[in-house]
Design goal:
By secondary structure, this protein is of the alpha+beta class. The protein has 2 domains: 71 residues, no CATH class; 35 residues, no CATH class. The chain is built from 3 helices and 5 strands, in the order αβαββββα.
Length: 108
Amino acid sequence: MKEHQNIENNLHNMKAWAEMNLLSMCDVMVTSAWSTFGYVAQGLAGLKPWILHNIENTKAPDPSCSRVVSMEPCLHSPPVYDCKVKTRVDYGSLLPHVRHCKDMHQGI
């Protein structure tokens, strides 16, 4: 596993795609919070994965993992500005079919 993304290197991209594709063949998936590979693999597989929650303030969360409600990947940095009303908006609270991510509250 590489420490950083190298999008200019096609060999690197092919290896990353192969890893995500292999992950998508799992019957059960537990991913770490913020895992791009996990999000892509769960979407490809059509799985609702388990998310392993991050440790906060040196304390393990209870429960340490939980099942997400959808196989859809999380968008960790969604748009926060509504151009029509010219103000910040929380789409996870505004729209009934959009929910906040389990591992990133501001994500949708």
